[in-house]
């Protein structure tokens, strides 16, 4: 597992998003995992570069119990689910949605276009998503 984690974070340092593709069922896993979550088989997995494009499926605004001060530099953001073009579906932070946008965004779910961003943190980088700029109404 350490090799997978290292390769993933090395990719982020290079500005690349890496996932793993199952050689059995062809499913792409992102973030990368050791074995395929789709078919459950222990097939070989190969590294693939992820486009970073996807769509937001759902979201919720951070509240008193879910707010984390370490994420203040990401404001405005929500927590939500994203499905990337390559098929993987997962939970993440999604930047660019204010409370005033809630109704507009909810009307367009699950087709809200998003793209991945690599966010520097203290000693490492993480992946978040951001709503495509030309989608959001002001």
From TrEMBL:
It comes from the Bacteria. It holds the Pfam family zf-ChsH2. Residues 10-41 form the ChsH2 rubredoxin-like zinc ribbon domain. InterPro entries: ChsH2_Znr, NA-bd_OB-fold, Thioester_dehydratase-like. This is Zn-ribbon domain-containing OB-fold protein. It comes from Streptococcus caprae.
